[in-house]
Specification:
The protein is mostly helical. About 75% of the residues lie in helices and about 0% in strands.
C-alpha cells in the first residue's frame, strides 16, 4: 500500500523557492500595492468618509463666509483638515496589513526583496494622499469664489499657489509619519495609538519639561507651520522635528520590517 504524507514547507525550502522567483517589475509591484491599499471595504469606506467631511466643511465655510470674510489659505486648511488627520491611517494600514492579515509569507515569497515592497507601499499611500489632497484643493477653488462673491473687496490670488503647495507637503508628511510607525511596530492598533498619542504627549508634556526648547521636537507644531506657511525664523526647529519624527523612524522601520521574522 502506498501512502503519501503531507509535509509542511520548511523555512529553507521557502527561502529556496523565493530565490528562484523572478523579480517583479517595480511598476507592477507598485500597482499591486496600490490596489491592496484601496481595494478593501474598510479602505473605501474611510476614503469616502474623508471626502464627505471635506465636502461638508467646504459647504459650511461657504455659508459662514456671508457673515465672516474668509481667506483662501484658511479655507483650504479647513477643507483639508479631515485628510491631514485621517489619511495617515492609510499609511499605517499599508505597512501593517501584511502582518495583521497574515499575508506576509505569500507576499515576501513572491517578492523576496522586502524593501522594494515596503517602498511601494509607502508610494501607494502617498499617491492616495496626493489624489485626496488634490480633491480638497479643487473643493477649495470652487468654494472660494462662492464664499467671496458677496464681498465688494477685491481679493488677490497672491499666495494661493504657496497655500496649495504647503497643504500637499503637510498631508504627505503626515502620511509618511504614519507609514513609519506602521513599519516600526507592524501591529495596526499599536501603530495608530502611537501615531496619534506620541506627538500629542510631546506637545503637552514637552513644554512643561523643556520649555521653549520642546519646539525642536514638536512635529505637530512643525506640520501646522508648514500648512499655514508660518515658517519665518523656525526652519531649524521644523527640519529637526521632521528628521526625528519622520526620516529616522522611516529608515529604522524599513530596516526592521525587512528583517522581521515571517510566520
Amino acid at each position: 500500500m502506498n501512502t503519501s504524507i503531507a509535509t509542511q514547507p520548511t523555512p529553507s525550502s521557502v527561502q529556496t523557492r523565493a530565490e528562484t522567483v523572478p523579480q517583479q517589475r517595480l511598476s507592477r509591484l507598485f500597482t499591486v500595492e496600490l490596489r491592496k491599499t484601496i481595494d478593501t471595504r474598510s479602505g473605501r469606506t474611510m476614503l469616502a468618509s474623508v471626502l464627505l467631511l471635506s465636502l461638508a466643511i467646504a459647504v459650511w465655510a461657504a455659508v459662514k463666509s456671508f457673515s465672516t470674510e474668509v481667506e483662501f489659505g484658511e479655507l483650504l486648511e479647513g477643507i483639508a483638515l479631515p485628510m491631514t488627520m485621517l489619511l495617515p491611517v492609510v499609511g499605517v494600514l499599508a505597512m501593517t496589513s501584511e502582518w495583521s492579515q497574515r499575508t506576509a509569507l505569500t507576499t515576501f515569497t513572491l517578492s523576496p526583496r522586502r524593501t522594494r515592497v515596503l517602498l511601494c507601499k509607502i508610494g501607494a499611500a502617498l499617491v492616495i494622499g496626493v489624489v485626496m489632497t488634490a480633491i480638497a484643493v479643487a473643493l477649495a477653488l470652487i468654494a472660494y469664489p462662492i464664499a467671496t462673491s458677496h464681498n465688494d473687496v477685491l481679493h488677490s490670488n497672491a499666495g494661493m499657489g504657496a497655500s496649495i503647495v504647503s497643504i500637499f507637503l503637510a498631508a504627505s508628511l503626515n502620511i509618511l509619519m504614519g507609514a513609519a510607525f506602521g513599519a516600526l511596530l507592524s501591529i495596526s492598533a499599536a501603530a495608530l495609538v502611537t501615531y496619534f498619542a506620541a506627538p500629542l504627549l510631546w506637545s503637552t508634556l514637552g513644554t512643561q519639561l523643556f520649555g521653549s526648547s520642546a519646539r525642536w521636537l514638536d512635529i505637530t507644531d512643525s506640520i501646522h507651520r508648514i500648512s499655514t506657511r508660518e515658517l519665518s525664523g523656525t526652519w531649524p526647529q521644523t527640519i529637526t522635528s521632521i528628521v526625528v519624527w519622520i526620516v529616522v523612524p522611516t529608515a529604522v522601520g524599513l530596516w526592521v520590517s525587512s528583517r522581521r521574522e515571517v510566520k
